[in-house]
Write a structure and sequence with these properties.
Six copies of one chain form a homohexamer. The first copy, chain A, folds into two domains: 7-100, Nucleic acid-binding proteins (OB fold (Dihydrolipoamide Acetyltransferase, E2P), Beta Barrel), CATH 2.40.50; 111-287, no CATH class. Chain A starts with 14 loop residues before the first strand and ends in a 5-residue tail after the last strand. By secondary structure, chain A is an alpha+beta fold. The longest helix of chain A has 23 residues, at 267-289. In chain A, α5 crosses α10. Helix content of chain A is 41%, strand content 20%. In chain A, the strands form two sheets. In chain A, strands 1-2-3-5-4 form a five-stranded mixed barrel. The first copy, chain A, has a two-stranded antiparallel sheet with strand order 6-7. Chain A has helices at residues 57-62, 111-124, 128-147, 161-179, 185-194, 199-202, 213-217, 220-235, 240-251, 267-289, and strands at residues 15-29, 35-43, 46-52, 68-78, 81-91, 296-301, 307-311. Chains in contact: A-B, A-C, A-E, A-F, B-C, B-D, B-F, C-D, C-E, D-E, D-F, E-F. The interface between A and B is medium-sized, with 27 and 27 residues. Chains A, B, C, D, E, F: Keywords: Exonuclease, Hydrolase, Nuclease. Chains A, B, C, D, E, F: It comes from Bacillus selenitireducens (strain ATCC 700615 / DSM 15326 / MLS10). Chains A, B, C, D, E, F: GO terms for molecular function: exonuclease activity; nucleic acid binding. Chains A, B, C, D, E, F: This is Metal dependent phosphohydrolase.
């Protein structure tokens, strides 16, 4: 991964002068009674919160999610988090030759390469029932899967983030299966590929992801269990393979309070949960520490139990 | 309900001399090294734990789950719970003219009357989509539903217990809807009828109920969500009705640690959870207090937070 | 209940132009260093938070709890909750012919009708000891009871809210006793009438309710237990009836962390807790969903575990 | 305290040959189907669990709580706890000249000396209202207080244990008030004297203490709050003193899950809770370590969070 | 302790016109987009939060931690806490003849007197190994110990606060050892002296205390265990004394969630934890109630479980 | 790993006729009053609980921990766990030519090969300070490390289990570092090698491991932190490397309630915790499922949250 230079790399005190995408907008009332906008701005490297004070009705009309703007401002510290103070702002115009898609944070691999890599793993599956179900569902959702984020925030919350998370987990699964040969790679790889697939239904598209109504009322776990049920019915597959795959989906969050009403009761389900955990945590850790100088602590990372991380002075 | 006179009504010190059904058997090794049997015996009124000491290989062969035996013994106290000490025991023979089915604890209403009552509620549903899904699923599982217990133990754990629980809840739902007119009776009644229906897949039959493999690995909540999904697909129904019914199933246990990964987010889902709770608790309370004399405490009731209940001396 | 049209029915974007009562006032310092007032305003239908920015010393003198004001403003969204932005404000004058009492949110039934209904339930009590204690205490506190709110906030937090809550619970108790005939209606009805009665001591009057010192240091549960003790002494009543009523008061919150140091250990105590719960929750749910359009989510409701509720698109 | 030599001082492997009191008896069924008795035996120094195997109906008739027996046996280890294995046993006869009272574990001070010491503290109270209430209640319950245990088990669970606990706490209160002069000794001493006084109602007498019905349904905290209420009414005392004393009773267990629905909100209430804690814990610790040799661990102490304690090898 | 008159004694509504020390500064962005400073100001009696609005770059340059300023302002209420609103502010100049040290909140005893008192306790230690280790470590850290605070905030968070806390605990330990003669005073006194000693490494100096890197990554408990290890190695001491002292350090927070991975398993370790708790709580309580009028409640005290405390009207 | 055939592979119903090592013995009293022995017996493949009933004083003298016996018996089910019922037993004699060491369960790799592999990893460390500390401590404890178990029970609780656990974790660490290149392999490998090293002090030797006194009072985490402190002092090394290694030791259990008073705050510390977790869990899972037939559930595994695991019918 070559060193990037975008919003994710900016430190407190740096200035910003570039095009960015408005990912979300919230209107607020300042404590002087004037309206302001809380914007989430992004470029390819990441996102940042920004405030635009004392906005006019025209401003509120102009600055909406999905538009590209040219921003002048500087990075400030707000309760230990970076925040962009906007000094000036304008909507991009056609002569700027910029498109929203160019400013979406996205995975460091091309979607088509990742699709190819997952497909390769599916080819390797030996158990015919598992392979047919996995292939069927991967094809069914492939298009949305290619660009879906893995989350609204926290980890892999960028375009193709879901696919990138799956690819990393598959690689991890391959190494772990070499070290622990009792693991059933058919079940493990299929579980990895399918575990979060229903996020394509739980979340709206990659540009400005939000929870859908079925996402809120049911969540991706029950949605995916019904997807597997439908696939099995359609392919006329029955047996423990269907049950085991549904169990892996049901239990991959590990605990009731994290959304899995049953704990893992199959070896590969236990491993799936751990692999998911490792990949998500390493992704967040790397982001948190990327711009921290040696001998310093990072910003607090909420989903990592709100910890702040230290980079020892002998690391770079 | 006329006063019953069976095993459920026996107190410590009473003697027992009657036919009973063996619901389950476990072999143990006494601390003198000799094998013994832990039996769960039942008649129509209820169940009791019993011990048969120093058994021969023939005894182990004879006394198996599902058989009817003639028992002589007396009720003793074991750590605050009633236990039957067996003095003598024999297998029933054909001339006894007894059948296992006669000794199964079962609901105080006839299954056919209850089926009729539920059917009546289904007729009353106004929303066509909800009615069609409910009717379809009730028909599909009606036969098993007629005899299924609501649980392996705790509450309504007898033949037709599930149906009896549903009928009580429907009546309760009708009264509550009269008092709180904002309740949508279509959604509430349908939710009551469907909420535990997949217990017919989670548990094996009424004679000696146990968890099935899919019951252990998935549980009745995910199983029922896929049942609704299939029904809707088959009946070509789409829309919020399907989603709302699935949400009611998903959330009817109320909390993640009780098996519902999402909390109720629809008015009728919140009410379904409370109705389920009231009916289960009243059922357990009534059983616990049935034979307690005024001015005394009951045995501890494990699923009621292991409490012991007091019957004031002015109650009978 | 006819459709109301007051502050409770206003949606984000609506304008307000009407008389309202100031229920409470807090002074704050805006982040520009200027004082502002956080007002809680009410009319008969409900309450709303409002902000008055950049206030003068005269404003602070004028706008005090208990006064009626004429307000011009509009409803805005503040972190998912409605908030009234005041554009102009003036104190009511005598020619306006408005009284504070007219702008207090209050129960949808007249206090005298509710007193009558409770009295009717007391007449029906069969157990003489329970009846005498209940009648004695109801008479003793009847005047305050007629107007007391059930809480400072959350549910039934309006004039006569306590009495309305009791009446609803009595009706619910009647229906449940019909469905579960083992319930002792004497104990249940008396427990319902007395359970929160000491809130007339825990909270100050209905206009601007606050916790009293004895409310903070002891709370309504121990206060009511001593009230029953005193009544029994005065009426020279002894026996399990006194103990059972005190136990019902002590345990009606259900759990230590909710304020009941003992769990319910009498059948009617368990039922009292569940009835209290149902009525409080239905009250809050109805308020939360009242103005939500079909297919939308409500504001978050803090005492309902901070959930947001969905109104399916087939409901109105 | 001179070194004692009784059952409390016996170690695993020691033999026992002495008169002891039967504090409680439970009948059990051994896993060979024969009845046995679980006895709790005591002498002045303490108690021990004992088993009598294969008992006859005559044995069950003879060996009842409250009788004195002559025991031959030896101390064995049972899951890390001492247990007395009885080799032979006989009821005491009149010629033995032993009385149950002589074998009750009891406080190391004479009750009359402790009554005298508490009375002295009451004389020192300056606040007339607090003094009158305290004196009134102490006189009312003095007789039962003189012999009551502080608990059924755990700490100070012997005759006059409650009084001894109070005396120790008063001494501790005196020293702490010298070190922290802001403490109000009137409130603190009175709170110490009254805090557990209603245990004379919660528990039956000292010989074989058990929970009473009002002890189980209400507990000593609500009972004592009503006692203070009655005393104040009778003495025509009103004001913050009554409220503060009731608050100290209500909160002295410190947390909801330990039985106090409100936390301490008065300085002396906070201190009362800590003094209670220290004295109870030191009492249990001293008992647990009394017979442990240097360099060894004690038995596990259940109410001290089931910990086992180490006596360093340089201690004796 | 003579009545003080400084910032700690100021009530809401009072004005302030005096020199104060800036203990810490944080820059913020007001919701009108302008920078402001959150200052923590102190004099000998205590600290207060203050806000300086709409600051210039020069202000930000001038007002830094460690400088003395002359402040004009008044005390306001902010969410139940006192806050100083600054009306004007200037840096002190040499002609003011004020030094930062004069405005540090500090213990009510002179450090040299406290050092003397601790030394006296060390002289009294009878166990030579314990005495040598204690003396060695006390000498090693004496200089920093003389001025160190016991915490960044909460209790004893002022200059010499750590030493004052130790002295109070030693006195308390002396009285408790008189009442509970089984306590080993050598172990207890040494444990008290050493228990928080490594706070001199965990926190930076008294003027503006902050956590050091080793304080954050290891904390004072592991740091002190290694200090004892080193001292024992250097003094060539081995045996249970070293182990017991390390155990006391390890366990003095009492529970895993409070920072002690093991619970106290030695009598004196259990007592150390309780003494630490009493002294810290009394210190916070006294501060919270100092300026509260009789019949009123204090501000909420966060480390005392966020409780507000009541001063009964008969106390002064 | 070739298929083994020993006690670990025996199923309920199998007979046993072989030499085994007595790992531990506890004397108990059966409920018929007769003494019995609870033995833990082992061979190379694993352990099993066994009961010897009605033992004579000679038996108690003969059958002690550390001796080899010839056993005749059969495997029974006791509450879902395998138990060996002994039919006959004799001590081994010299002519049997068996040694205790041959019957110790032990790691599937030779200790010398594992020492060699760890040494290789130490050679690869680039950071000189980390390498010197690691090498120093590995040499210091190498002898005990070669045979130490990783625990008294649960996972890797056999001879050389600690070393085997470290080797597996190092291999896992190598693969993860390849997938997540930001990981500092120096810190990670050193943390893996050192993390549990002080278990050689926490537990007694491999034959019959028990907790030592310092193991109970301090535990391996604080012991290892002082070991690193001593090593650094001896090697005159200072700096963040020492602190980072101590932090990794302190935090490797992840949470306070699992024994780490601080959470991981360095990237490699977080990873160390996850690697430790994976290897321990896979080790327990493999053991639990080894003898389970396809389509069946395993025994419950207490340290895996008491779960029972299912082997799908398509796995072998």
């Amino acid at each position: 991964m070559t060193k990037q230079n975008g919003i994710q790399q900016k430190l407190v005190g740096d200035t910003v002068e570039s095009f960015m995408l408005i990912k979300s907008v919230k209107k607020g009332i300042a404590s002087n009674g004037k309206p302001f906008l809380s914007l989430q701005l992004s470029d390819r490297t990441g996102e940042i919160d920004a405030k635009l004070w004392a906005v006019s009705p025209e401003d509120q009309e102009s600055y909406q999610a999905g538009r590209v703007v040219f921003v002048n401002g500087d990075i400030q510290d707000f309760r230990g988090m970076r925040q962009l103070r906007i000094r000036s702002l304008r909507l991009s115009v056609s002569s700027d030759q910029v498109k929203p898609h160019d400013f979406m944070p996205s995975a460091p691999m091309a979607p088509e390469d990742m699709i190819e890599e997952v497909t390769q793993f599916i080819f390797e599956l030996q158990n015919a029932r598992i392979q047919r179900i996995t292939r069927h569902l991967f094809k069914k959702h492939q298009k949305a899967f290619a660009t879906a984020p893995a989350a609204v925030k926290n980890h892999h919350e960028y375009a193709s983030g879901l696919l990138y998370h799956v690819v990393s987990m598959l690689r991890l699964g391959r190494e772990l299966s070499a070290l622990y040969p009792t693991l059933d790679t058919d079940l493990l790889y299929s579980g990895i590929i399918l575990h979060d697939m229903a996020k394509v239904r739980e979340l709206s598209g990659p540009l400005t992801p939000e929870y859908t109504v079925e996402g809120k009322l049911l969540g991706h776990i029950p949605l995916m269990i019904t997807e597997i049920d439908e696939a099995a019915k359609e392919l006329q597959i029955e047996g423990d393979e269907v049950l085991a795959l549904q169990h892996m989906i049901l239990t991959h969050h590990g605990k009731p309070e994290w959304g899995s009403p049953k704990p893992p009761m199959i070896r590969e389900a236990e491993m799936l949960h751990m692999i998911d955990n490792i990949d998500a945590r390493m992704n967040m850790l790397d982001r948190a520490l990327e711009t921290v100088p040696p001998g310093q602590f990072s910003e607090r990372v909420f989903p990592l139990e709100n910890r702040s991380f230290y980079k020892p002075d002998f690391q770079s």
